[in-house]
Design a protein that fits this description.
alpha/beta; Rossmann fold; 2 domains; 6-stranded parallel beta sheet; 3-stranded parallel beta sheet; 11 strands; binds guanine
Length: 313
């Protein structure tokens, strides 16, 4: 633990993500050379939500850069649930597609769970299918959701000791909080999961050696949540569009203020950055922390899916 520092050391997710992407690119080339197989990742986007469109394009671009075949299936917002299911079934049957990702959220009225359960578990690179969730639960190989898997990779590659540490996860979503808790448990942490109904949330969080903030509320995790020297991982990502909020979170940070003035926004996480920098031992920045790891782990899962398709483990 970095107890003596006045400023938290940066946990550079971007650098870890780059390393992982390089390994995936090498693995893709090797699979092509040995088996003539190019990993294929298909992303299904329903509707034209601007944020989802950007995420999906970034995933496609990153996969191509790693030597994969990647494509986006774009469906209009009014596509019926049955038509989405048919698209997924067609991709399940296509041997050139090793990984399928259906971008969430789906339009109102579409049963997301039914769509997720249609994805073949061997192509479920998001790790959202109940079979993969169950595999994670009992500790047998399967696909693990990309964001929590990326957090573990980052902590390990930065030689953060996990065994025996008290990890507190704030958030209990199926995508981040619950799988994060299971992965930390697998690494021999003592795990506490907190949520909006937790009594004395700051008091519980402040017991953590490792604090994972996945609450979805801008800047909520302030100094009162952070034990001095703790490792703080910020999974949140929020657009900030007004200078007053920037000042509340970042103080007189000219770069951030300039971004709001010229580009209209900057991004921040669930953790109050100035508070955390003065108290944590290690901290993930936003942007450049957890975000890039999510895509890197998606690519790793897609490569694993392609390798398994030819009988490699
Ligand atoms: N929407 C936001 N994050 C994710 C993700 O990791 N996977 C999918 N499929 N949709 C998302």
């Amino acid at each position: 633990m970095n107890l003596n520092a006045e400023t938290a050391a940066v946990l550079d997710g971007k650098a870890t993500a780059k390393q992982i992407r390089q390994e995936v690119a090498a693995g893709s080339a090797e699979l092509h050379a040995s088996h003539g197989v190019v990993p294929g990742l298909t992303v299904v986007l329903v509707g034209d939500d601007p944020a989802s469109s950007i995420y999906v394009r970034n995933k496609e671009k990153a996969a191509k850069k790693c030597g994969m075949n990647s494509s986006i299936v774009s469906l209009p917002a009014n596509t019926t649930e049955d038509a989405i299911i048919s698209t997924v079934e067609r991709l399940n049957a296509d041997p050139a597609v090793h990984g399928i990702l259906v971008q969430l959220p789906l339009p109102d009225g579409v049963d997301e769970q039914r769509v997720i359960e249609t994805i073949h578990p061997d192509k479920d690179v998001d790790g959202f299918h109940p079979q993969n969730a169950g595999r994670l639960m009992i500790g047998i190989p399967g696909f693990v959701p990309c964001t929590p898997a990326g957090v573990i990779e980052m902590l390990k590659r930065n030689e953060i000791e996990l065994k025996g540490k008290h990890a507190v996860v704030i958030g209990r979503s199926n995508i981040v909080g619950k799988p994060m808790a299971l992965l930390l448990l697998r690494e021999h942490c003592t795990v506490t999961v907190c949520h909006s109904r937790t009594k004395d949330l700051p008091g519980v969080a402040a017991q953590a050696d490792i604090l994972i903030a996945a609450v979805g509320r801008l800047g909520m995790v302030d100094a009162s949540f952070i034990r001095p020297g703790a490792v703080v991982v910020d999974v949140g990502i929020h657009r900030v569009e007004d200078e007053e909020t920037v000042r509340r979170l970042f103080g007189e940070d000219e770069k951030r203020l300039e971004a709001v003035r010229t580009k209209g926004s900057t991004v921040a996480g669930d953790v109050h950055p100035v508070d955390a920098r003065g108290r944590a031992g290690w901290l993930t920045p936003v942007p450049g922390g957890v975000g890039p790891l999510t895509i890197a782990m998606l690519l790793k899962n897609a490569l694993d899916a392609a390798r398994r398709s030819v009988g490699l483990d």
